[in-house]
Design brief:
Elements: H1 2-11, E1 15-18, H2 24-36, H3 45-69, H4 78-86, H5 90-108, E2 115-118, E3 124-131, E4 134-138, H6 144-157, E5 161-165, H7 175-184, E6 188-190, H8 194-203, E7 209-211, H9 216-225, E8 230-231, E9 240-245, H10 251-262, E10 269-274, H11 277-292, H12 297-307, E11 308-312, H13 316-326, E12 330-334, H14 339-342, E13 350-353, H15 359-362, E14 390-397, H16 400-416, H17 420-427
Parallel strand pairs: 1-11, 4-5, 4-7, 5-6, 7-8, 9-10, 9-12, 10-11, 12-13
Antiparallel strand pairs: 2-3, 3-14
Length: 433
């Protein structure tokens, strides 16, 4: 009886919304907004930590590292780093090398070209791509893939100074992250995590921009320090997946993709969309069995209970509308007729197409970037790319004839806007002023 009761409880843990119901949209928005607002988790401590470290520097940083991570060594010695790297399994080194090559090749295709335009008056207009001088990369715990995804495009763009913040795991340095850092030539390495790491990168290391995903505390920290430092043009928060499946989709594909995302973080969001009611029932039973065998089953279970969702859709148009409203970080189109949907989907960080394209592999070595917009920010932003590591500066060189021609019309607009100082400045360069 107890065992059956447990199973019944677990079967009900994922919320189901029948999109044939009249108020389904209101119910969906309520579900999404609760997580996007951040109110589901109390992050009020974040601004206090940031302010303390801004004022008191390294002393405050060490205080929070001791409190949250029991860490007393912020800057690991080169001897300890090398000793840690030696412990890494050669198989993992080869896997990192393989991923590095694929990520580098794909991101090299994103190289930009300066723009130059010369008009008939020999006026020269240029748009120069200038690398950001320093970047802080936040890498959660034992995720060497995240370091590769962030640092490789930064290096290709020409960033001169890259600073790594990577919290210790169970009080130990992570050899895989350190091996990746060595391969990338990163020399500034700090053992720190959470809000205190973001504060340190901003106010102690004083980098120009911070990139890298993290939990909800890291995501809020980055939003709070924006303005004192740059951040990605997106919200790289707790992970998300939306899986589109039908009556021909392999059940194992669906369940493993949902669980694979849920095991990241208790705040991860996992959504299944389907028109097949039988698949919904089969999935709810299958997920119970697979969770039992998962090493991180407690995290995945909490994630699915709090942020798991099944949407029973009535037609293809509604499916497209649902996906664009959710704006998922990752989208799996695990259906045969994916072409019916693909070109109508405008809001997603990345789209994995067909049954042989599991989202999980894109986290590692497909070559595309896994730092992607979350919390609905895919509606207005893109995944991490080379553009994140450039500033664009306009160069303007006008000729004598050019200022006379352009200036005439510019003064008309300046006077219309009642900015006489502007008009006078322009006329000071014009012949016969």
């Amino acid at each position: 009886m107890l065992k059956q009761s447990w199973k019944t409880k677990k079967l009900k843990m994922i919320k189901v919304i029948n999109c044939k119901n009249k108020n389904f949209n209101k119910e969906l928005l309520s579900f999404l907004d609760k997580r996007r607002s951040g109110k589901a988790t109390d992050t009020s401590v974040v601004p206090k930590i940031l302010k303390d470290i801004k004022i008191n520097g390294r002393k405050a940083l060490l205080k929070y590292e001791k409190k949250f991570s029991k860490n007393t060594e912020i800057v690991p010695s080169s001897q300890k780093i090398n000793k840690s790297i030696k412990l890494l399994n050669p198989k993992i080194k080869k896997a990192i090398d393989f991923a590095y090559d694929r990520i580098f090749k794909f991101h090299s295709k994103q190289k930009v070209k300066d723009i130059k335009y010369v008009d008939k008056f020999k006026n020269k207009l240029e748009y120069k791509y200038v690398p950001i001088q320093s970047v802080g990369i936040y890498v959660p715990a034992n995720l060497p893939s995240t370091l590769l995804m962030n640092a490789i495009p930064a290096k290709i763009a020409g960033v001169k100074r890259i600073v790594l913040a990577n919290p210790k795991l169970n009080g130990k340095l992570n050899p895989s992250v350190l091996y990746a850092a060595k391969k990338l030539g990163i020399k500034e390495i700090y053992s720190m995590g959470g809000a205190q790491a973001i504060a340190s990168l901003t106010y102690i290391q004083k980098v120009n921009k911070i990139v890298g995903p993290g939990n909800i505390y890291v995501a809020r920290s980055k939003r709070e320090v924006f303005g004192d430092v740059g951040i990605e043009g997106m919200i790289a928060g707790p992970s998300e997946i939306t899986v589109l499946a039908d009556n021909k989709t392999d059940l194992d594909d669906v369940t493993t993709s949902m669980i694979g995302q849920a095991e990241h973080d208790i705040n991860s969001q996992c959504v299944l969309i389907t028109k097949d009611k039988n698949l919904v029932n089969k999935f709810k039973a299958d997920v119970v069995q697979k969770l039992k065998k998962l090493p991180r089953k407690n995290i995945a279970t909490k994630s699915l209970r709090n942020n798991g969702l099944i949407l029973l859709a009535k037609n293809d148009k509604q499916i497209v509308d649902l996906i664009n409203e959710i704006a998922p970080e990752h989208l799996e189109l695990n259906v045969y007729n994916y072409k019916n949907y693909l070109n109508k989907i405008h809001n997603a960080g990345s789209i994995c197409i067909g049954r042989y394209s599991p989202m999980a592999v894109s986290d590692y070595n497909v070559g595309t970037n896994h730092v992607l917009p979350t919390l609905g920010s895919a509606k207005f932003s893109s995944g991490l790319n080379l553009n994140e590591f450039y500033k664009k500066i306009s160069h303007i060189t006008l000729t004598k004839k050019g200022i006379e021609k352009i200036g005439e019309y510019a003064t008309h607009l300046a006077e219309y806007e009642e900015l006489d100082g502007h008009a006078q400045s322009i006329r000071s360069r014009m012949k016969g002023k």
